[in-house]
Specification:
The chain is of the alpha/beta class and 287 residues long. It has twelve helices and eight strands. Bound molecules: NADPH dihydro-nicotinamide-adenine-dinucleotide phosphate and (2S)-3,4-dihydro-2H-pyrrole-2-carboxylic acid. Its EC number is 1.5.1.2.
Length: 287
């Protein structure tokens, strides 16, 4: 029986676990999750999904064929420390923003089969927009297996690793931009006199409808927008405010800055790793 193990038990791990179980890709007994120290969180996940949980990462790594790294980028080194000698044929799927395949291999100390993936939290309802990039050591069959796994919880595109920071800025962080927009729409709805509960349903359906139109229509978003906008009508009046306040520029800057931040995370970590290697060399501990 194939098993998948998550190192990190936060929001993204839970979103994937929920989607994988709902989609029947893995049965709960095939899933193991480990975190650093938060026992209550493991109990919560175990109760909610009936999955296996542990603080013992070594036993997890020995037991699974797919290891999903789901810790914050700053914790990559501590999360892999002590596991190096137990990583052999397992496929490593890293969800970490910015952290490169080279960095992961350098922490493990040799070339391993690593796929970097950038999903989003809509994985929980099988609507993730995921992109993956593989290292040279990954076989075609492992790439296909990983792609199928992410396709079971949404869509999955294969990209070059160099494009993953941009994917992070666009669709990894993307749900948060939409929730930010919805928070503003809800605030406005109440200010113009609507009931909050009714407003939330109307907003959710509006987003669902618009997103389905974008995905299914042959028309461009520009054409679709024009079809809503009657000359001198309400939409035009509203859109003029967005133009006056340069909302387009703000959104472009938002995605560029998030992309840049993923690159900063990578640079920060590479620097840290080089520093810790040179300290080891100074102490004569380097191999
Ligand atoms: N959230 C999102 O929308 C997305 C996140 N990602 C990526 O996924 C990763 C996880 O993000 P997210 O789920 O939001 O993070 P969270 O902060 O919610 O979870 C982080 C988890 O890592 C665990 N952890 C920390 N250090 C260690 C360690 N040394 N060994 C084992 N577990 C450890 C924490 O355990 P404890 O609580 O015990 O400290 C916690 O369970 C990030 O790298 C992020 O870039 C990618 C796409 C989308
Ligand atoms: O905010 C973050 O850094 C992570 C990566 C993409 C979504 N959440």
């Amino acid at each position: 029986m194939e098993k998948i193990g998550f190192i990190g038990a936060g929001s993204m791990a839970e979103a994937m676990i929920a989607g994988l179980i709902k989609g029947g890709v893995f049965q709960p007994e095939q899933i193991i999750v480990a975190n650093h120290s938060n026992t209550e969180r493991l109990q919560e996940l175990s109760k909610k999904y009936r999955i296996n949980t542990t603080h013992n990462k070594i036993s997890l790594v020995k037991d699974v064929s797919i290891i999903v790294l789901a810790v914050k980028p700053k914790d990559i080194k501590s999360s892999l420390d002590g596991l190096q000698e137990y990583i052999h044929d397992q496929l490593i799927v890293s969800l970490l923003a910015g952290i490169t395949i080279d960095t992961i291999n350098s922490i493990i100390g040799r070339q391993t089969a690593v796929i970097r993936a950038m999903p989003n939290t809509s994985a929980a309802i099988a609507k993730s927009a995921t992109a993956i990039a593989a290292s040279e050591n990954v076989t075609m069959s492992q790439i296909n297996k990983c792609k199928a796994l992410f396709e079971a919880i949404g869509i999955c595109k294969i990209v070059d690793e160099g494009q993953l920071d941009a994917v992070t800025g666009l669709s990894g962080s993307g749900p948060a931009y939409v929730y930010f927009l919805v928070e503003a729409m809800e605030k406005a709805a109440v200010e113009v006199g609507l009931d909050m509960v009714v407003a939330r349903e109307l907003i959710a359906q509006t987003l669902l409808g618009a997103s389905s139109m974008i995905a299914s229509s042959e028309k461009s978003p520009y054409q679709l927008r024009k079809e809503v906008t009657s000359p001198n009508g309400t939409t035009e009046a509203g859109i003029n405010i967005l133009k006056e306040q340069d909302v387009e520029k703000a959104l472009v800057s938002c995605i560029k800055r998030a992309t840049e931040r993923a690159t900063e995370l990578k640079d920060m970590f590479t620097e840290e790793l080089v520093l810790s290697h040179s300290k080891l060399e100074l102490n004569g501990q380097s191999k």
